[in-house]
Specification:
alpha/beta; Rossmann fold; globular; hydrolase activity; Alpha/Beta hydrolase protein
Length: 276
């Protein structure tokens, strides 16, 4: 596996590809892989997922090449400024603010990198990225849902132990800790922002215009026993989600908690290989 790093406006953007990628002229599928809260691009579960994806692409003759793209979330890894802002209600009264701003900021970073990465990698236009996808774990899974909803260029989405219903998830978390869904933990100004911009605030269960998931390929991977991002927080939205001519696959792994299991990695790799 070959890794390169480009710096775009101060953001370290890492790319991973097969050894044969540099000499290929095939069109490219670029897949972002986003890490979880308290992690980074160097977290073992992220590096293992990236290695499995690139390894799978190397072992198969496909019409397109795979390029995996990764960067640190805001306030994580090389971008860390305040560790307390990444903590739960117990240590951080702004948990709702901080986690939502990070995941929405990361979705915006995905769009930003899509704008500029081809110019940095292929200065003479010698290669083309013909399709974009996003896969993310936990916090990265939340960002995956948002990026797929907000940017029409994202055609493939693999949220892993993530949730599309932010308020539903945070409501369960607050209830478990005896916190009211009211100020100061849930300011009304923040609730307005969340309700206007999260996937559950839009008509994604519709087959008509206005549903940005139409035509997209989505693989949802969750643990049936996940205590941190319980399947119950996502289930209603996922079951109602319409993708039209796209595809929707849902795997809720029995016995799995808040973890990236080998079975989830295998499912993600198989899903991506079918796109190449």
């Amino acid at each position: 596996m070959k890794q390169t790093t480009v710096i775009i406006a101060g953001l370290n953007v890492h790319t991973y590809a097969t050894e044969s990628f540099a000499s290929s002229i095939k069109p490219i599928l670029a897949l972002f892989v986003l890490h979880g809260r308290l992690g980074s691009t160097e977290s073992p579960y992220i590096q293992d997922l990236i290695a499995a994806l690139v390894g799978g692409a190397a072992d198969n003759e496909r019409e397109r090449d795979l390029l995996v793209v990764a960067f640190d979330h805001r306030n994580h890894g090389t971008r860390l400024r305040a560790q307390v802002a990444n903590l739960d209600f117990k240590d951080n009264p702004n948990h709702v603010h901080d986690m939502y701003s990070v995941q929405t900021g990361t979705a915006k970073d995905v769009s930003f990198v899509m704008d500029f990465l081809p110019a940095y990698l292929f200065t003479s236009g010698e290669r083309s990225i013909v399709e974009w996808g996003v896969a993310g774990v936990s916090l990265g899974g939340h960002s995956t849902w948002i990026a797929a909803a907000e940017d029409p260029r994202v055609k493939i989405a693999i949220p892993i132990i993530g949730c599309p219903d932010y308020l539903g998830l945070m409501g369960l978390r607050a209830e478990a800790q005896g916190i009211a869904i009211a100020p100061p933990h849930f300011p009304e100004s923040l609730l307005r922002v969340i309700r206007a911009s999260t996937p559950t605030g839009l008509p994604y269960t519709s087959k008509e215009d206005g549903n940005p998931f139409l035509g997209k390929k989505v693989l949802i991977l969750s643990g049936a026993n996940d205590p941190l991002v319980p399947w119950s927080a996502s289930e209603k939205f996922v079951k109602g989600l319409e993708v039209g001519s796209g595809s929707k696959e849902v795997i809720v792994q029995p016995g799995a908690g808040h973890e990236v299991t080998p079975e989830m990695v295998m499912a993600a790799v198989a899903f991506i290989l079918r796109m190449l």
